[in-house]
Every structure is written in structure tokens, then in C-alpha cells.
Design brief:
The protein has 300 residues and is of the alpha+beta class. It has five helices and ten strands, in the order H-E-H-E-E-E-E-E-E-E-H-E-E-H-H. It is elongated.
């Protein structure tokens, strides 16, 4: 055990603690974080793929699932009713074809009196800084087809405001929009947060529909596996450094145990080297040779 006493030095102890903490984070935080994102993305992609194939259902059937059942985000639904006048709300910091834009929200009253929040789609900003004139949705009875979407939540510090004659927010959230419009909204069951409707193309009152996410699982699985690999490699690397230090110390100890001066085993101690093995001293250069080296040899 004395060979490992150097591991009790502060530098080695600090290194061991850092390696242990890094490996712990890899296995308990970093890898589960990426693998969890991969699971969530795969689940979302499956829901979107299933919704593309499934026939739309009446939104009242989805509302009946409130308080129980599985989340219904991305499901295609139909709704019958009419748009509520003067219910336009703009969502800032959106993009359309790579340029600044706005998402246009409105409310839709079902035939049974319940009111839902509807994302009418995207519009381009004028000069990249202000909204265009937003026409009101068509009046009268309407039948719309949309997808159920989950509320985005509210960003702290980004409060609703009124600019350029429109009520504006920074995210789509049924609770926030209910307060902005001062009217109760019915939320759709989507899990932890309430949901709203996102209009499909060619629907009454739609602008440019918000595009569906790409059905790509992303790099999360590979990132998660990389963090697991790092968590394994870190202790192995520490073990290699310990082994290298022990090996170097053995070499130094073996070198220190050898005598400082050694003689040839053929000749006994105290004997003089034989003339045959002693190289003769170099001959002194002649005056002619020195002059030739300095000025060069002449021809002739």
C-alpha cells in the first residue's frame, strides 16, 4: 500500500473528486437529459405521423376527455361555430419564410357556447418591424378543421402589450390570452398545459398555416450515448494515470538503486586502460594545412 501513498496528496484527491463528480453527472443528469429528449421527440413524431393518417374527430369528443385519458396533442379535429368578433391577438417574434412575422390568434365559439383559442397562422411583418393590417375572420357559422396543440406557457418578463393598434403577446397560452381578451376560454386536454386549435390549410380565416415540425429524431440519442461513454472513460482515464505514475516511480526507484559509476566487467577495478583500446590523440595540423584551410589551396 505504500506504493499508493501518493494518491493521498491534495492534487490527486482533487482530481479523483472531479472525475467522480463528472461521471456522476454523466450518468444521472447529462445522459438522461439527452435520452429523455430523444424519447419525447420520438413520441411527438409518432403522434404527428398518426394524426396525418387518422380521420379528424369532432372537437367536442376531445373536450369530453378533459380530466382523464391520454394527451391529445396533434390530433385532427373539426369544430362548428363562429369566430368571436374583435378577438385578434398577435404573437410576436415569429418567422415566415425566414423573415420576421406574427402569429394571428382569435377565438372561436362552438355551437354549445364554449370558446376555444385558435391559431389562424402566420403573416409577414411590414418592413420587418410592425404588423400588417389583419382582416377579421369571416363572420357567421363556420366549420373549421385544425390540430390540437399544447400551450407554450408564459415567458417571465415578457408581458402582453398593445402596439400598432393590436394586442400583442410573446407566446401562445390559453390562460394568458384569456386574461388579455377578458373572456373565459375552454382549454383542450393536452397533458400538463391546456391546449388550443391550430388551423389547417384552406380553412376559413386561415393565413399561412404554422408548419408541422420535421419528423426527425435529432441527435439526442447519440448525445446521450456519448455522455454515457464519457462517464465510463473518465474513471478509466484516472486509472491509467495512476498506473502510469506507479510505473514511472518504479523506474526512478530502480535507477536510484544502481551505482553511480560502472566499469567494464572485463577489466578489474584499478587497472589502467590498455593502449590498444585507447584511441590515439589527434595529430596537430601542420602549418601548411592550417594555411590551406584558411586561404584555400592554390593550383599549380
Amino acid at each position: 500500500m505504500r506504493r499508493l501513498a501518493f494518491l493521498l496528496r491534495p492534487s490527486w484527491l482533487i482530481l479523483a473528486v472531479l472525475v467522480a463528480a463528472f461521471a456522476y453527472l454523466c450518468f444521472t443528469v447529462l445522459a438522461p437529459w439527452q435520452l429523455g429528449k430523444n424519447t419525447a421527440t420520438s413520441h411527438r413524431n409518432q403522434l404527428i405521423a398518426d394524426s396525418v393518417k387518422a380521420e379528424p374527430v369532432d372537437v367536442t369528443a376531445v373536450l369530453a376527455e378533459s380530466g382523464g385519458g391520454t394527451p391529445t396533442e396533434w390530433r385532427r379535429v373539426t369544430a362548428s361555430g363562429s369566430y368571436v368578433p374583435d378577438s385578434t391577438v398577435l404573437v410576436r417574434l415569429r418567422h415566415l419564410d425566414g423573415a420576421p412575422g406574427y402569429a394571428v390568434l382569435a377565438t372561436f365559439r362552438l355551437d354549445d357556447g364554449r370558446v376555444l383559442l385558435v391559431d389562424r397562422g402566420l403573416v409577414s411583418a411590414v418592413d420587418g418591424t410592425r404588423p400588417p393590417r389583419i382582416p377579421e375572420p369571416p363572420a357567421g357559422p363556420q366549420r373549421i378543421e385544425a390540430r390540437v396543440r399544447m400551450s407554450e406557457g408564459v415567458t417571465p418578463g415578457k408581458d402582453p402589450s398593445v402596439q400598432d393598434g393590436y394586442r400583442q403577446v410573446y407566446s401562445i397560452d390559453t390562460t394568458q390570452e384569456s386574461a388579455v381578451l377578458d373572456q373565459p376560454l375552454t382549454t383542450l386536454p393536452t397533458g400538463d398545459r391546456g391546449g388550443y386549435l391550430q388551423l389547417s390549410e384552406n380553412q376559413p380565416g386561415v393565413f399561412t398555416p404554422t408548419p408541422l415540425p420535421q419528423l426527425d429524431a435529432g441527435p439526442y440519442l447519440s448525445y446521450g450515448l456519448q455522455w454515457l461513454a464519457f462517464g465510463i472513460m473518465a474513471p478509466l482515464g484516472l486509472g491509467y494515470f495512476v498506473y502510469a505514475e506507479i510505473r514511472e516511480r518504479r523506474k526512478e526507484k530502480a535507477a536510484a538503486a544502481q551505482p553511480s559509476g560502472t566499469r567494464s566487467p572485463v577489466e578489474p577495478p584499478g587497472s589502467e586502460p590498455s593502449p590498444a583500446t585507447t584511441p590515439p590523440p589527434p595529430a596537430a595540423p601542420t602549418t601548411e594545412a592550417r594555411l590551406a584551410d584558411r586561404y584555400g589551396r592554390g593550383r599549380g
